[in-house]
Description:
alpha/beta; Aspartate Aminotransferase, domain 2; Aspartate Aminotransferase, domain 1; 2 domains; globular
Amino acid sequence: METIPYSRQWIDEEDLQAVCQVLRSDWLTQGPTVESFENGLSEAAGVARAVAVSNGTAALHLCYAGMGVKNGSTGITSPITFAATANALLHCGAEVRFCDVDPATGLMEPDSLEQTIKEQKPAGEEVHLVIPVSFAGRLAPLEEIAQISEAHGFSVVEDAAHSMGAFAKRNEHTLRSASCEHEKASILSFHPVKHICSGEGGAVLTNDEKLADKIVSLRSHGVKRPISNDERAGWYYEQTDLGWNYRMTDLQAALGLRQLKKLDSFLERRRSLADRYHKALKEEPFNEFLEVPAAEEGHAYHLFVILFRNPAHRDQAYEFLQEQGIRSQVHYIPVYRHPYYASLMGNMRLPGAESYFSRCLSIPLFPKLTDAEQEKVLEQLAAFLRAL
């Protein structure tokens, strides 16, 4: 039986040729293709700078560290995310706190954020962050989050790993994910299931030139070279910060740059598949057993998430679809439930996050998904529901 994954990359001959061209060149890493990719990213997002790095987790770590997060800092994020959003705060020595989410969308809930800040507002002059996650490809309520955060002395970083190309209409204005209009910086991921793929890879986007320069230094051991206005030999360099080796290779950048040219077509296909899902799931038997967050014009549909009215049906559906050769996934187990975080925070539970987690299932959606494969997903999901 041929398996339908919940997501996968789309690599074509032009992608292969782009990587092979770099393999034949003098620069496999630390070469000009990384800068070209960065320029393409900054232009696509409409920001001053993009710094390409080895993966999305490295982007988070470098972003936080570059902003000055350290011991005494606090970071507040959503528990409905991959653990890296919070892990990178701990790697910087910061304290992690979670606020609740909207149980229908999984997005950070502004009222819960404000309550979390007021109840446990950190003392001191350290840098404190709020990290909203534009989960599944839907833009987080960035304006409200920024207003609340700034009023309490917090800076905002958007985790846009799911939302490249997403936007939302705000009256006469269009707010775009990763544009850094309301946040100090945004991060992207180029893992194979994301909107564009570079094997692994990530980026920090910002309009703050000083922050971008700091991240460039930190991604390469904290080394600066060449030293400007220095009369010493050309080989001379200095380590000015304690950084990491979080560089992106030119091989990754070549693939990412080629994929970036297809972003619009990839988004168009994702939105077309999502529209078909939305229309089908309004009908019987789906509407009796499922809830689906309302369609939005600017949703980037990294994931297509359905919510079961009865939580008991979620795992049953997962197993049934698995038997039919259809892979689905749960996004996400709330971060505070993982044993490591439970050891830090105890038996924490947030009602919105618990409701979302208990009912959510991501069904297949990716640009290479065929109409016939999507029809099979709908047919088998309908068969499961009719048997209940």
